[in-house]
Design goal:
Elements (H helix, E strand, L loop, with lengths): L7 H7 L11 H37 L4 E14 L10 E10 L5 E6 L1 E2 L4 H9 L4 H5 E6 L2 E6 L12 H26 L5 H25 L15 E2 L2 H15 L3 E8 L2 H10 L1 H5 L3 E7 L6 H21 L5 H12 L1 E6 L5 E3 L14 E4 L9 E7 L2 H8 L10 H13 L3 H12 L1 H6 L2 E3 L3 E2 L9 H18 L4
Parallel strand pairs: 1-8, 8-9
Antiparallel strand pairs: 1-2, 2-3, 4-7, 5-6, 9-13, 10-11, 10-12, 12-13, 14-15
Helix pairs in contact: 2-16, 3-5, 5-6, 7-8, 11-13
């Protein structure tokens, strides 16, 4: 039912008793969804362990020095309405998706939300009581002696969370406790008991202390929350989510060499060199950046593909002795051109943005002539490549042509293999699962977000549904 497009309330109606006297509650429905997720994740772990063993056995049999895995990585945004229908607010969750380029197997689909965190418990543990002085300021020493200074955001124990939302959720939980206490006594028409007064006073004091830290110390943007029921969990920073997701992918694939293909985004530039530092130093990691025309119309895509097929067929007729793959490599090597931005004054500017303008990365980016998987007008960069071609490639400028035939051949092989197609295919399948996206409060990234009544308001449920659909897509959903 989850993968076939049923809504949550439709599931409740399907799972009720034959005569319809008793209908499943939402809590029990969530428990069943979580149970199914747990079973499928255990099944996936067992299958991956068996697969890694088989890959290692085949590597030894073929006498290869290592296994080379190529991973495509991209993001998708889902707008989640976990608020009430009165305010109709949406919260955006970003999901980091990693898939194998050869097989299309989706290893990870991680949302930037940690469902195990209690915001109130985390804030009080780290910023109230005996740990306050340690987690708010740090002692330093210079020539004049010792002094203290406030911790930067990345030095704080809550650095991986969206801290304004974390503090707002902690305060909201205390206000919710006070509200429910008053409501219960008013409904029973009873005076406040001493314990209730003490609990209420304690909640107000704790909320005031947290509000003081948020407003006066951290100067976070104040976020108003309504009186909805609270739940466990908090949004995490995009940088942390992407780093954790890529680290998990590294542990899931066989030991050996890895090529990562991703989009040109600033977060990747801050994360990848740290997550794969040891692999980079051991020459077991390569990184390619792909950008293509996402706004291309279907007519333009068809035109570019027709131009490619006509040119490639002419090349094959002129070189009948080459096989398909060898002919494609030779044709691509003859047609690659440097990519750069032309300014109004006629000068040339590097193609990548400031996050990839470091001197540690090569300046030359290339336009790929191969429109693979409807990815037309592709521009590809190689921030981290094999040492065999890294030194020569870094010497080239933004508009240079690769003259060395061996380097040109090596770069062409990597360029034709660089694609985001397996992740894009999974994203399209996810978007076409209308029930999943409606339950998340958005119709798709292309059409924009909208509020949908009755959709999943607990992000933990959405994460479970994404995991269930991912495993079903990998194992049970037939596709070419």
């Amino acid at each position: 039912m989850i993968v076939n497009g049923n809504r949550l309330h439709d599931m409740r109606r399907m799972l009720r008793t034959p005569r319809g006297e008793t209908e499943l509650g939402m809590s029990r429905l969530y428990d069943r969804i979580f149970w199914l997720e747990k079973v499928l994740l255990a099944y996936e772990r067992a299958q991956l362990a068996e697969w890694r063993t088989e890959v290692e056995r085949q590597r030894i049999k073929d006498e290869k020095p290592y296994t080379h895995t190529r991973i495509a990585h991209d993001d998708i945004s889902i707008n989640l309405n976990w608020e009430t229908r009165t305010d109709r607010r949406l919260t955006q969750l970003n999901c980091s998706i990693s898939a194998d380029i050869r097989s299309g197997y989706v290893f990870r689909c991680d949302a930037d939300f940690d469902p195990k965190i209690d915001p109130l418990e985390v804030v009080e543990e780290h910023y109230l009581g005996s740990t306050q002085s340690v987690n708010l300021r740090k002692q330093y020493r210079n020539g004049d002696g010792a002094f203290t200074a406030p911790l930067m955001h990345f030095q704080r124990p809550t650095a991986r969370f969206d801290e304004p939302a974390l503090f707002a959720s902690a305060i909201g939980k205390l206000h919710r406790l006070i509200y429910r206490t008053d409501k219960a006594f008013d409904a029973a028409n009873l005076p406040r008991s001493p314990d209730a007064k003490k609990s209420r006073s304690d909640g107000e004091r704790r909320a005031t202390e947290i509000e003081f830290l948020r407003d006066k110390w951290f100067n976070f943007v104040k976020q108003e929350r309504d009186g909805r029921g609270s739940f466990q969990g908090i949004v995490t920073r995009d940088t942390y989510t992407k780093a954790a997701s890529l680290a998990c992918v590294k542990d899931m694939i066989p030991l050996g060499k890895m090529t990562l293909v991703g989009e040109q985004e600033g977060t990747m530039g801050r994360v990848v060199p740290h997550v794969f530092r040891k692999d980079i130093l051991n020459d077991r990691f390569e990184w390619a950046i792909v950008s293509f025309n996402r706004e291309a119309s279907s007519d333009w895509i068809d035109q570019r593909k027709d131009e490619f097929h006509i040119s490639f067929e002419v090349w094959r007729d002129a070189h009948p002795g080459l096989g398909y793959w060898d002919a494609l490599q030779a044709w691509a090597a003859a047609n690659i051109t440097p990519a750069f931005q032309s300014l109004r004054d006629g000068s040339k500017s590097p193609w990548p943005g400031p996050n990839f303008a470091s001197k540690a990365y090569p300046q030359l980016w290339l336009r790929s002539p191969v429109p693979r998987a409807n990815e037309v007008d592709k521009v590809i960069g190689f921030p981290i490549s094999s040492p065999r071609c890294r030194s020569e490639y870094r010497k080239l400028g933004i508009d240079d042509t690769i003259q060395d035939p061996e380097l040109r051949s090596a770069i062409t092989r990597r360029m034709t293999m660089a694609t985001l197609q397996p992740v894009s295919t999974f994203q399209n399948a996810l978007r076409n699962r209308v029930s999943l996206v409606e339950r998340a409060g958005g119709r798709s990234a292309r059409k924009g977000s909208s509020y949908v009544n009755g959709s999943a308001y607990n992000p933990r449920v959405l994460i479970a549904m994404l995991n269930i659909w991912r495993i079903y897509y990998n194992v049970f959903d037939w596709r070419t």
